[in-house]
Amino acid sequence: MEFDRVKDSSLREKVKDALTTVRDFFGDGVSVAFSGMAGTAVPKEIPKAIAEISKERGEGLDIRALLVAGTTTNSFEQCMSTAHVKSRYLIAGGGEMRERVNHGVIEFVDYWLSEYSQLVRRGVIPRGGLDIAVIEATYIDEKGNITPSLSLDCVPAMVQAAKKVIVEVNIRKPILNGVHDVYAPQPRTPIPIRDVGERVGAPYLRIPKSKIASIVISDSEEEHAAAYQPPTKLEEKIAQNIIEFLEQSGEAGENIVLQAGVGPLASQLIDQLPQKHVSVWTEVAPVKWALATEKIENMSTACLYTLKGEEKFRDEFYTRFNQLSNNIVIRPYEITNSLEVISRLQVICVQQAIEVDLYGNANVSHIDGKIHNGVGGSGDFTRASYITIVALPSTASAGKFSRIVPITLHTDVTEHDVDVVVTEQGWADLRGLSPKSRARLIIERCSHPDFVDELRKYMNTVAKLDAHAPVSLQAYETFLQNVKH
Amino acid sequence: MEFDRVKDSSLREKVKDALTTVRDFFGDGVSVAFSGMAGTAVPKEIPKAIAEISKERGEGLDIRALLVAGTTTNSFEQCMSTAHVKSRYLIAGGGEMRERVNHGVIEFVDYWLSEYSQLVRRGVIPRGGLDIAVIEATYIDEKGNITPSLSLDCVPAMVQAAKKVIVEVNIRKPILNGVHDVYAPQPRTPIPIRDVGERVGAPYLRIPKSKIASIVISDSEEEHAAAYQPPTKLEEKIAQNIIEFLEQSGEAGENIVLQAGVGPLASQLIDQLPQKHVSVWTEVAPVKWALATEKIENMSTACLYTLKGEEKFRDEFYTRFNQLSNNIVIRPYEITNSLEVISRLQVICVQQAIEVDLYGNANVSHIDGKIHNGVGGSGDFTRASYITIVALPSTASAGKFSRIVPITLHTDVTEHDVDVVVTEQGWADLRGLSPKSRARLIIERCSHPDFVDELRKYMNTVAKLDAHAPVSLQAYETFLQNVKH
């Protein structure tokens, strides 16, 4: 059974169980990178074995650096939290791992996805080098070519940087041949992509056999993405306002290239778009979109993920894979998030945020200094896109806090990159407006009625300061005082 | 005499004096864009005529939107301040113009240079369209091809967007044929540049003759760049620290591509670099570098500017133009600042800043909410570069203020894009470090001894907050109180 998926006979001797693999290769102080994004293609057996061995030893395995490629699954985070992780790169994780990051027990570093790939490739991170990359695959052919599952995320960079590679071949999934395009950017060479659907690389991964330390067969089911919730009325309204902006501003052509955000808002936006044909160029897309061939002409993504309750769409995608995979290209995010390609394709991007200030600066990663998830590809898309739309609900915690704030004390995306702000209240086209004019428009069109008065008061106070982009800590503290419940 | 420089006989009837030109084409409510960057190639006669007519009328000409391409000259700003300018794009200017921007009399909007070009091309800014582009040139050949002077800045985008173009042919300068490369990015098409010196476009501008409204002959001398001062010991030390970082981190290869910053620091850095051969890919370069052929292998820039006191270098460049122009390409900044090309060439960039916070966020444009110059191309280079070095003196106002601050209340470049911070005190390599580790390193290696204790106190206070990137307004205010002189 297991050799049906490992056709290269020279690699069969490397098939081992996960416990043996971890015992053989995970010495104390190891640095390890895992594939997977939005819960998709996150290795399943190695994390379980790490947890089991940690339990057996009575103390956690000592991991110098843990690299993930994106948001993971609850199981992954639970397993990895049994280990003593010293430093972690990208996405703080959930539960205990995130708490340790905020406590400062884990040294955590976040990067834009495109930058991350490059720093991993160049060996700049992790300091001291990468020992092991663990990646999920669905098939290894006669020549040793490896077919990944539904994510290519940071895989090529991790594989190149790692001294050893462990491949988890997941036999619960079908063999997913033909949907991938593996291309690595070369210095001083244009990336030759001119169209969302264009393939320019290989349909599989090639890894030097000497680098492959172990092949672990997995029969585990894919978990849904831990980071996203199902859509609500709020996302429906925000999506409607995004569409209204596109139409009224004249930017809603028939052939737009869209990065539609992630999670529930992304689902709503594609559902409601009146255009018959759109192209999607993004870092993560719900597998549901792979079925929406009447709406999505073609799609390029680093990952196809499954929202909770949407497993049936994934099953249908698997069943109709040969037909549906024609319109979809899964690429590593050094390509999907490439500044070069995003600029060239004139992408309209939707960036979600935790809060946005009156001039348009957005915080996408921190709440009161505590990391939430991470910045993801926000700096890639917002910087290089044709139009950047920052979309968010106008309030948080059941209306207790305004997400439109006088000042963001943590800024990930600056006002210079934000063209439009959208909430469920409305949209504000900020292009060509000075900071103070932006502020007036955001307050009047996007903020929640419960906070409009206090935001106006703040702005009236600082507007007297005789400055181009005035800020006042005192006025900000007055605002905080007045909106307290 | 004047027709020596306008060889196309069909264009000779368009040669007019500046006063007539302004009377004919500058109706009230006009929108106008001027070429020029770092004081170079800023039109001279039209601004003077605008000032003269404003004086004559007893009230200022009414200008709906004034677009400049970069920092200008004192004369330009003085002339334009005679007009009633409603809105201004890019670089707040000096003197009275800047004051009006901060007072809010002029609606001022700033963009990264690469973004600006694109928004002008697409007609997004200025709202209501661009009526006139005024550009400086040195020659028009028999076929009407136009040779610019030593800057291409935003010229192709402005010319494309404008309904009418006014060409100032400057006969005080030599004919500068052969140093330019005019190429416009096309949607869905790679920019084919693979090397700093590669030419991919035309050596001159082509403008539809029907668009040319007037040709004004100018015999005015070029002014030096208003924005920059000559170098001091401080810049010398900062440059030494940048070089020390490059060498100790192993990033100082023989073939590095450098964006060396602007003004006095840039001069110092190139002077002191031990490498025999470097390539320079930048938006503005001092004309002095054009003579440094033993050090600079080749150079690509949107503009060659002249620092005060360095006019002799420009004269030498003019004299040896045919030989020296072989190693230099002047491109529009939609190319020099293209995210695509900067990434591809793996540029090491030096970004100057007004202040930087303990996590690495940089403010490059505002002091207490008041605009200083503008963001320029900071977001282009810092985002796309291979390594981003933020360089600044550790203090301002003769040591009164620390430029290393607990919090930047205006952020243009976020921590995610800042790899290294350098002051005259030392350098901090922040790559792969968490926010709190970054803060410790910046305090210990880069801050001024007069402020180290208070910065440490701030950091010790917020470090107790149990957050990944803690901030505290209260601790910040205590810091401000304690460092007051």
Taking all Cα atoms into account, the compactness measure Rg of chain A is 23 Å
Shape of chain A: globular
Query: Average pLDDT value of chain A?
Result: 95
N- and C-termini, Cα separation of chain A: 62 Å
Number of alpha- plus pi-helical segments of chain A = 16
CATH class of the largest domain in chain A: Alpha Beta
Quick one: how many beta strands of chain A? 25
Proportion in β-strands of chain A: 15-25%
Unreliable residue stretches of chain A? none
Largest sheet of chain A: 8 strands, mixed
Give me the oligomer status: homodimer
Classify the helix fraction of chain A into a percent range: 25-40%
- The structural domain count of chain A equals 2
What is the CATH topology of the largest domain in chain A? Answer: Glutaconate Coenzyme A-transferase
The fourth-level CATH homologous superfamily of the largest domain in chain A is Glutaconate Coenzyme A-transferase
Describe the protein's architecture and organization.
Two copies of one chain form a homodimer. The first copy, chain A, is of the alpha/beta class and 485 residues long. Chain A has two domains: 217 residues, Glutaconate Coenzyme A-transferase (3-Layer(aba) Sandwich); 250 residues, Glutaconate Coenzyme A-transferase, CATH 3.40.1080. In chain A, strands 1, 2, 3, 4, 5, 6, 7 and 8 form an eight-stranded mixed β-sheet that branches.
